[in-house]
Specification:
It is a single chain. With about 150 residues, the protein is an alpha/beta fold. The protein is built from 2 helices and 12 strands; from the N terminus they run ααββββββββββββ. It has one domain. The chain has a 5-stranded parallel beta sheet with strand order 1-2-4-6-8, with helices on one face. A 5-stranded parallel beta sheet has the order 3-5-7-9-11, with no helix packed on it. It is globular, with a radius of gyration of 14 Å.
Length: about 150
């Protein structure tokens, strides 16, 4: 079931931006993992359960840190509650079954929620939130929001 969800979401992304999908590296995290990758290429990340993808600079409140790239980053979350801490570029969070959260950076950030109470918390001016399919999603701050 999980692989079918991931395959469906990957197909949806490739329809929108096949060039991005063709250039990205893929990683799959297991339960309660934190991604530590210091590469400077776009990447697609599959999360399973309660993972943190933190690509911002060091944050004291977190036990993990990520020095993100200047390019697009894509997170496809699985069944758990997953969190993408965005960098200064465009960030995409394709939400899965859990309560997913995107904390965006300076660029345009997109959250496509499926199930669960998903949150786009973006505190910069160039922010676009695409939330949907289930009630309970939230868009916080930013200047532009599209709710579908």
């Amino acid at each position: 079931m999980k692989n079918q969800i991931i395959d469906k979401k990957l197909n949806n992304i490739s329809d929108r931006d096949s060039n991005l999908v063709n250039r990205i590296a893929s990683y799959e995290l297991l339960e309660n993992d934190v991604l530590f990758k210091f590469i400077y290429d776009p990447r697609l990340v599959f999360l399973v359960d309660n993972d943190v993808f933190n690509q911002a600079e060091n944050r004291a409140e977190r036990s993990s840190s990520w020095e993100g790239s200047e390019r697009k980053d894509v997170l496809i979350s699985g069944e758990g509650d997953n969190h993408l801490n965005g960098d200064p570029s465009q960030n995409f969070l394709i939400g899965g079954e859990g309560n997913d959260r995107l904390s965006g950076g300076d660029g345009h950030d997109f959250l496509l929620g499926e199930n669960g109470n998903d949150v786009l918390g973006d505190y910069m001016e160039a922010s676009i939130g695409i939330l949907g399919q289930d009630a309970g999603d939230d868009f916080m701050d930013g200047e532009m929001a599209t709710i579908v």
